[in-house]
Design goal:
The protein has 1214 residues and is α+β, with helices and mostly antiparallel strands. Helices cover 30% and strands 22% of the residues. The protein has a six-stranded mixed sheet. A six-stranded mixed sheet has the order 17-18-19-20-24-21. The longest helix has 24 residues, at 1022-1045.
């Protein structure tokens, strides 16, 4: 309907309302560049369209018709009212104390009528007067005190000039009808009608029209059908025009492109700067990181991209050549305009794509949905293109932030599942999900987040798995496909596969999981440390991820991080490129047009969640602390002694003197794994090119010169081509191994990451056997899904095994190697597709899985390592737990039928305990009392009694250690004698309940549980039972005789017996509380092998010709005697205990570190290592008789008048 334009009735001026407005609205094709910013910065976005208010407030709705007629009447008098052009090309702001309004406007410098003239005429028709306010189009608002205030203003300044001819004025009314407006708004301005400036008529719309469709969260507005590209196209650089231009949409001109056979996806959060103007100091570092070989990719996703950085990036010719397609062009190019947010997601690609923005709740960045029409799979006749969702979720760790992350992810996954249910997906970006268990648990305890929020974080990990998404990092890690620099660290032990990446190791004292291969590391990265909120935990987090879905299309082939180089800025300060590390995933794609699902060959394990009383990781670690099994507190000690020994053994100057190649020393065993306590040995492997004999001779020579540093050589061991040297360094036991492998030394540190097929491993069987512990350790550390969680679970299972009497390799039970392999398999099968498994859940699943395992039929092996192995076990292998590198794959060779029965029973018992509703980790470990259940489990026991007198505890310990080595064959013999007899040896020493430390006669016991049944587990007839016990007794008698004949057994100072005892005769025993590790014997010269060799080496090292001459003379005149020169400990014990000798008449001469030779009476000499006056026995130089000042024992002269050993024996022989 058209209104008459002839009315001259004056319009009332006293009535106005904010329910209506008269404005100019730009054409629809200009909206995107404006709404790009308004969506983020304008609080009136969606309430109002982009507009320039001419009259606001306007008139009541019922007066709109009359007001329109009055305006038209006046417009007849304005020449050129239909010829008004607008050019919004200038940005400005209305300052305010708290909040500024940013806008763009027309400077109106052109001749002819302008918009201001139009407003004057309209106000005159309404009887109003202009207040002179600048006509403008609002872009957004910003807080004056915000660091982003200037950045927002700059965005407004870079909006391209908007030009159009004004041909209509729009009349808006406020619509409050919930059925017609966006549910998130209280009201929305809708079109009531318009004044046509050409025809000067008023077409009205009695049912107001919305300017925006209701935008539902988790949807792309105006989404296109699945078979067509998305709405937006990327920019490409035109060489002819020398600028960035939108990609051409004419698909008919597009050349046919052959799909790639591989694809690399990289992601990098480059860290936006809040300062204005931006410093740009890090820009060269960021671009250097992006162009690094470790970051080369087909598709690159960037987060926190600012207008200034994108402009800088687009100017780099190398970037343009590497990535022809970029989501947005440079904002400083006049015809492109700014990015919508201060921090933006930008995708760069070698392959063309289409894209759009998926709206997310309370996250203006949304998710960039990218569709690659040249990459995808065929499903019959249909082609399913690859879909990439680039994300940057809400950051922070609060209840609100956790809720937002959850909602945002659900929106993304719901959209992908609905719109692209069969397509291959990739999700990449900064997910902002905290992964550090320590950080999360501390946040719960402080009240920063609730337990419900913690559950939401855990559920997010399950959400990925339920959607079929595989974490590329997790998959690559368990398959040993991580590339680039790999960090092997714990305490001081760190080796980086690329030497240029040596940075400080993490503080593992707080590591409880979720920090492995972190991408945000405030411990190492100072930029990340600056971003952590004050009072928050500065723990590493794996915020950045690449997730893939479509295992019938994608095959994950590798994963690496980049951006970990520090470079100098212009001011000379070292800095990283960003507070995040970059990540990259390598994928292989099928070459055939049609894809068939492939079998992975890996059977996953179903995770058994720890019940609520056991779910807290801190509860588990507190239990380990009580048992002195939590490793991290002891690492300062271990680090000190390891570094000391390493310095002594690998000293460079000695290598130069003897023209020897370098000796490399690395830790193996529990210390190398990072799960060591001070009650355990530190095993060290030295690798060199010299022979084993030469190495140990050289090592002994160097160690003897370092005795003043607390080094004590205990004994050399030579077992089946695996020589070792046992040491004590500051009360820490250490075992030194050696391997002669020139190819390993010459290519060090290539062994850390070298594949097993590498030519460097073409070595002899013995050499490979010596290298095996370190190669296996490297593989475990490279592929364990989370080393911190693994360590906690490993220590807990080890503690359980010790307390349940199923730990001890020499007795056929579990040991460090077996526990590592068993635990690693469970962990990798749980995590090979991603997700998070806590230490309590890992331990719970471990016991559930192995309690039901068929040990005699099935083998435990790593399917990611042994992908095509067919292992055939022998009849002597009741348990097959396959390690990694050969030779000797079965790590359970020492396990026997009887020890396997004990291990299996304990695993089933553990599983039963875990089903109890009131169980705690302390109850699981500590109850019943240590060993008490074993003492009541069998009707009869073999009780082996060992007594010793007149010997030091160190001597006694030495004898019992040897005796324990005789038990495995003895137990095997017992089982042979009586079929179906259940035999269980407890791997520990027992004492009487009323034992006192001051006893002169030391007595210890060993217990072996016996139960005789038939093959069906039933009681046997009395006559058969009696015959069986006779066989057992005969075995005991033969064992006693065997021990008595051995040279290790001293009849004068010790006694051993073995007898059958009923269960009630052993109830007064308890496990030995004494720490026998504190009582060790120092090796004598005769125990150390080729004395002449290392003595000559010592002489040569001195560089003194006089010492060479003396050494030569001493060797020429050296007296040869038979037998062993008795040690200082033997002499001391005899002086103390021999009734025929008055100990008060003897003096000990010893060497003080500072005062030289000192003397002390024998009676005042302290042998207990814990005593504050304790002096090591290797410092004793002589014993002297007071009455005649005669030297009765002299270490240097090898003279012994007490026992008649050494050179004294020559007199007797004469």
């Amino acid at each position: 309907m058209a209104a008459s334009a002839t009315s001259s009735e004056p319009f009332p001026t006293s009535r106005d309302t904010y329910e209506t407005a008269l404005c100019v609205i730009p054409p629809k094709h200009l909206w995107p560049v404006i709404d790009n910013l308004r969506r983020v910065y304008d609080s009136a976005y969606k309430k109002w369209p982009p507009h320039i208010n001419l009259v606001y407030p306007f008139v009541p709705i019922q007066d709109l018709q009359r007001a329109s007629e009055a305006i038209i009447s006046k417009l007849h008098k304005l020449d050129g009212a239909d010829q008004i052009d607008i050019q919004l090309d200038t940005a400005d702001c209305f300052p305010n104390q708290k909040r500024s309004v940013f806008y763009i406007h027309d400077q109106e410098l052109r001749p002819g009528p302008v918009l201001t003239d139009l407003r004057e005429v309209i106000l005159e028709s309404l009887g109003r007067v202009s207040d002179g306010t600048q006509l403008h189009l609002t872009v957004g608002q910003g807080k004056v005190d915000s660091p982003l205030h200037e950045h927002t203003w700059q965005k407004a300044k870079t909006v391209p000039a908007l030009c159009w001819k004004v041909d209509k004025l729009c009349i808006l009314v406020r619509d409050r009808a919930k059925s017609r407006i966006d549910p998130s708004l209280s009201s929305q301005m809708s079109a009531w009608g318009e004044i046509d400036l050409v025809s000067l008529t008023v077409p009205t719309v009695w049912d107001p029209n919305r300017f925006y469709q209701i935008e539902r969260i988790g949807e792309i507005p105006d989404a296109v059908p699945e078979g067509r590209p998305l709405n937006r196209l990327p920019y490409t650089f035109s060489i002819t025009e020398d600028k960035w231009v939108p990609q051409q949409t004419d698909q008919s001109m597009k050349e046919k492109i052959i799909a790639p056979e591989s694809l690399t996806i990289a992601n990098y959060n480059i860290q936006a700067e809040c300062e204005y103007p931006p410093t740009r100091a890090r820009y060269p570092l960021i671009i250097q990181n992006l162009l690094h070989t470790l970051a080369e990719a087909d598709v690159l996703v960037l987060e926190e991209v600012t207008d200034d950085f994108l402009s800088h990036l687009c100017r780099d010719k190398r970037i343009r050549e590497c990535y022809p397609f970029i989501l947005n062009g440079p904002p400083d190019q006049a015809d492109i305009g700014p990015l919508p947010n201060y921090e933006n997601i930008v995708v760069l690609s070698k392959w063309s794509f289409s894209w759009d923005l998926l709206s997310l709740p309370a996250n203006p960045k949304g998710s960039v949905i990218v569709r690659f029409d040249d990459i995808g799979k065929h499903d019959g006749e249909a082609f399913l293109p690859m879909i990439l969702s680039a994300v940057h979720l809400t950051s922070g760790l609060s209840n609100d932030a956790v809720q937002k992350k959850d909602q945002e992810l659900k929106c993304i996954l719901r959209f992908l599942s609905t719109t692209y249910p069969e397509n291959p997906w990739i999700l990449a970006g900064d997910f902002g999900i905290p992964t550090s268990v320590y950080t999360i648990e501390k946040a719960v305890k402080r009240g920063d987040i609730s337990e419900d929020s913690r559950d939401i974080l855990a559920n997010i990990e399950r959400m990925f798995i339920d959607a079929g998404l595989v974490d590329a990092w997790s998959s690559a890690r368990v398959r040993d496909q991580l590339s680039g620099p790999i960090d092997f660290w714990h305490g001081s032990f760190k080796y980086i596969s690329s030497p240029e990446y040596e940075y400080n190791p993490h503080d593992t004292s707080k590591a409880a999981g979720g920090e492995q291969d972190s991408t945000f590391d405030p411990i190492v990265n100072s930029l990340a440390a600056d971003r952590v909120e004050r009072g928050s935990e500065r723990r590493p987090q794996r915020y950045d991820r690449i997730l893939v879905r479509g295992q019938d299309f994608f095959t994950i082939k590798g994963f690496n991080m980049f951006g970990r180089d520090q470079e100098s800025l212009e001011n000379g300060k070292l800095s990283y490129g960003s507070d995040h590390w970059g990540i990259r995933c390598s994928l292989s794609l099928p070459t055939s047009a049609s894809v068939q699902p492939h079998e992975s060959g890996v059977i996953p394990i179903e995770a058994v969640r720890a019940p609520p009383p056991l779910a807290d990781t801190f509860g588990m670690t507190e239990c380990l602390f009580k048992q002195f099994m939590f490793p991290f507190e002891d690492y300062a000690i271990g680090e000190t002694v390891f570094n000391l020994l390493k310095k002594i053994i690998t000293q460079d100057e000695a290598g130069h003197i003897h023209n020897l190649s370098p000796i490399i020393m690395v830790p193996v065993g529990s210390y190398g794994l990072g799960a060591w306590t001070s009650k355990e040995d530190i095993n060290c492997l030295c690798i060199g090119s010299i022979s084993s004999k030469t190495f140990f001779s050289l090592a002994i020579q160097r160690l003897r010169r370092a005795t003043q540093k607390g080094i004590k050589i205990l004994r050399p061991v030579d077992e089946q081509s695996n020589a070792t040297l046992e040491l004590e360094v500051g009360n820490i036991r250490m075992v030194l191994h050696y391997c002669s492998a020139y190819t390993v030394v010459g290519t060090w540190p290539a062994i850390l990451t070298a594949p097993r097929s590498d030519p460097m491993f073409e070595l002899s069987r013995d050499t490979l056997l010596q290298l095996k512990p370190f190669r296996d350790l490297c593989y475990i550390r490279r592929t364990v899904p989370d080393l911190a969680i693994f360590r906690i679970a490993y220590q807990f299972i080890k503690c359980w095994a010790k307390r349940r009497g199923v730990y001890g390799a020499k007795f056929g039970y579990l040991d460090d190697s077996l526990i590592s392999i068993l635990l690693l398999q469970v962990f990798k099968l749980l995590r090979h597709e991603g997700g998070f498994i806590s230490a309590p859940t890992l331990v719970t699943t471990f016991f559930y899985y192995y309690a039901d395992f068929d040990w005699r039929e099935d083998a435990v092996l790593d399917p990611f390592f042994h992908d095509d192995l067919s292992y055939i076990r022998s009849t002597r292998e009741p348990m097959a737990v396959l390690g990694f590198h050969g030779p000797r794959l079965n790590a359970a060779e020492a396990v026997t039928d009887s020890t396997l029965n004990a291990i299996s029973w304990e695993l089933r018992r553990a599983k039963t305990l875990l089903t109890l509703s009131n169980i705690t980790w302390s109850m699981f470990i500590e109850e019943p009392e240590y060993g008490a259940e074993f003492m009541a489990a069998y009707p009869s026991y073999v009780k082996i009694t060992v007594r010793f007198w007149g010997l030091s505890l160190a001597k006694s310990n030495h004898f019992m250690t040897w005796l324990e080595s005789q038990y495995p064959p003895f137990l095997k013999d017992l089982r042979k004698r009586v079929a179906h007899m259940d035999v269980r040896f407890w791997p520990g020493r027992w004492v009487n309940e009323d034992m006192t430390v001051e006893e002169d006669v030391y007595q210890r016991f060993y217990l072996i549980g016996l139960d005789i049944k038939d093959s069906q587990g039933r009681e046997v007839p009395f006559t058969e039972l009696q015959a069986a016990w006779d066989e057992v007794q005969e075995g005991l008698t033969e064992f006693e005789a065997k021990i008595a004949k051995d040279e290790h057994f001293d009849h004068k100072a010790s006694y051993m017996s073995a007898e059958i005892s009923p269960w009630y005769d052993i109830t007064k025993l308890k496990l030995d509380p004494l720490d026998w590790r504190l009582h060790t014997l120092e090796a004598e010269d005769e125990d150390l092998g080729d004395k002449e060799f290392w003595a000559a080496m010592e002489t040569e090292d001195s560089g003194s010709s006089s010492r060479k001459s003396e050494a030569s003379t001493s060797q020429q005149t050296k007296l040869i005697y038979k037998g062993k020169f008795r040690s200082a400990a033997d002499v001391l014990n005899r002086l103390r205990w021999d009734q025929a000798i008055d100990s008060s008449d003897y003096i000990v001469g010893y060497e003080d570190r500072f005062s030289g030779i000192m003397e002390r009476s024998v009676d005042s000499w302290k042998s207990e290592t814990t005593h504050e006056e304790f002096i090591p026995e290797h410092r004793i130089m002589y014993f002297k008789r007071k009455s005649d000042s005669a030297i009765v024992w002299d270490r240097k002269e090898r003279r012994d008048e007490i026992f008649g050993s050494g050179v004294t024996s020559l007199k007797r022989q004469a």
